[in-house]
């Protein structure tokens, strides 16, 4: 229902903004940015959720083998599995990472970006709603799990 609405109400102006936004929000580019920030701040443990997101997405796509929406409705063509959205998974991981490390203000901005990434994947017609929801939640849980594990073993960012 949400997907049908978005696909049937596309506009050329919004499409001209969403296509490049989605391209630059690809997991590989977000991970490169995460690497730069981690190196700058010497917090290399912050890369773990990103690495897990990069590995988990293709594995889960293979396991679920869920088909994407019809190719005729996709504004950018993808042929691999749909579940979970790799863009949303990485966005959820990074948004939770920002929330945990920088607090609610920056975290709110990061989650707004993550929701925009998820919206872009629906708008482009390359994912179903459940694909992006699962991606966001799984990404957030990966980061939360990494954070809790670090706390459990007593390693904080300031000790690196």
Automatic annotation (TrEMBL):
InterPro entries: PAP2/HPO, PAP2/HPO_sf. Residues 42-147 form the Phosphatidic acid phosphatase type 2/haloperoxidase domain. SUPFAM superfamilies: Acid phosphatase/Vanadium-dependent haloperoxidase. The chain crosses the membrane at residues 12-40, 46-64, 85-102, 122-145. The keyword Phosphoprotein does not apply. The keyword Transmembrane applies. It comes from the Bacteria. It holds the Pfam family PAP2. This is PAP2 superfamily protein. Keywords: Membrane, Transmembrane, Transmembrane helix. It comes from Corynebacterium epidermidicanis.
């Amino acid at each position: 229902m949400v997907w049908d609405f978005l696909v049937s109400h596309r506009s050329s102006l919004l499409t001209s903004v969403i296509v490049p936004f989605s391209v630059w929000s690809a997991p590989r580019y977000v991970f490169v940015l995460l690497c730069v920030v981690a190196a700058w701040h010497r917090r290399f443990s912050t890369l773990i959720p990103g690495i897990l997101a990069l590995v988990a997405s293709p594995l889960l796509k293979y396991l679920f083998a869920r088909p994407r929406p019809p190719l005729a409705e996709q504004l950018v063509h993808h042929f691999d599995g749909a579940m979970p959205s790799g863009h949303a998974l990485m966005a959820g991981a990074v948004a939770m990472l920002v929330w945990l490390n920088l607090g609610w203000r920056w975290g709110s901005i990061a989650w707004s970006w993550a929701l925009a990434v998820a919206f872009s994947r629906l708008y482009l017609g390359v994912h179903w709603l459940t694909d992006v929801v699962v991606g966001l939640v799984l990404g957030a849980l990966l980061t939360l799990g990494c954070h809790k594990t670090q706390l459990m073993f007593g390693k904080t960012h300031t000790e690196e």
